[in-house]
Design a protein that fits this description.
Elements: E1 6-9, H1 15-25, E2 38-40, E3 47-49, E4 59-61, E5 74-78, H2 81-90, H3 103-108, E6 113-114, E7 116-120, H4 127-139, E8 146-150, H5 151-156, H6 158-169, H7 171-180, H8 210-218
Parallel strand pairs: 1-4, 1-5, 5-8
Antiparallel strand pairs: 2-3, 6-7
Helix pairs in contact: 2-4, 6-7
């Protein structure tokens, strides 16, 4: 069985965007589908995707690393927490009993899932804390088999990200392309994924009030995983 790159992430961090990027630029024409229906969304209201997911063989998990089976070729992608939280709220990936919850209330409420929204759990933390801890736990592994990527780099400089992936996981291909050149890169312009948003880097700005931003920053141990344009 072919060993594909596997993607790990916090929910709404660009997982499906990266899957599409890998599929088009590294595995073009290969069958990467789930080959069957899958469920997604919050555990209280899972949605059936009857046709499956086209690049599911590239998905690792949303688990914290202690619960994940980490592949030999692994990427952990992370994204500014403000954009992650805005995307989760916009996609309504929260308990069905919270239908209609305001963004401000969602931001401050303790979550009832852990790792991924499909996994029921009560970690006694809000979404801001969960996002930061998820990244910290993965990055603190310091695992040489894991390439850590920022979603914003993939959007802004896909060639740079392509070269990082290629050099680490497919070095022969990388050095051949230095000598002979490579085919045109597909940066993925279309919306992809489950309940896709526009995937704009700073789209979160229209949701956060000044008070929301103050609360968000107050919950962080540091700001190094945020993206500053």
């Amino acid at each position: 069985m072919k060993e594909y790159i596997k993607i790990y992430s916090h929910p709404r961090s660009g997982t499906h965007f990266l899957e599409a990027f890998l599929a088009k630029n590294f595995y073009d024409g290969e069958n990467l589908s789930s080959e069957g229906s899958i469920y997604y969304g919050h555990w209280s209201n899972k949605i059936l995707l009857e046709d499956g997911e086209p690049y599911h063989k590239l998905f690792g998990s949303h688990f914290f690393p202690d619960k994940a089976k980490i592949a030999k070729k692994s990427i952990y992608i992370y994204r500014d927490g403000r954009a992650v939280i805005a995307s989760l709220w916009n996609s309504k990936f929260y308990n069905k009993e919270l239908e209609g919850i305001s963004f401000s209330d969602y931001l401050r409420k303790e979550i009832d899932w852990i790792g991924g929204t499909g996994q029921e759990g009560y970690p006694k933390m809000n979404i801001v804390q969960h996002w930061e801890k998820h990244i910290e736990h993965w990055i603190n592994l310091n695992n040489k088999d894991i390439l850590y990527l920022r979603f914003e780099d993939l959007k802004n400089n896909p060639t740079y990200v392509y070269n990082k992936i290629c050099k680490l996981f497919y070095p022969i291909k990388f050095y051949k392309e230095i000598i002979f050149g490579k085919k045109n890169l597909d940066p993925i312009k279309d919306k992809v994924g489950l309940k896709p948003n526009a995937a704009k880097i700073n789209s979160w700005e229209q949701l956060f009030s000044e008070e929301d931003l103050d609360f968000f920053y107050s919950q962080l141990e540091n700001t190094k995983y945020l993206y500053n344009k």
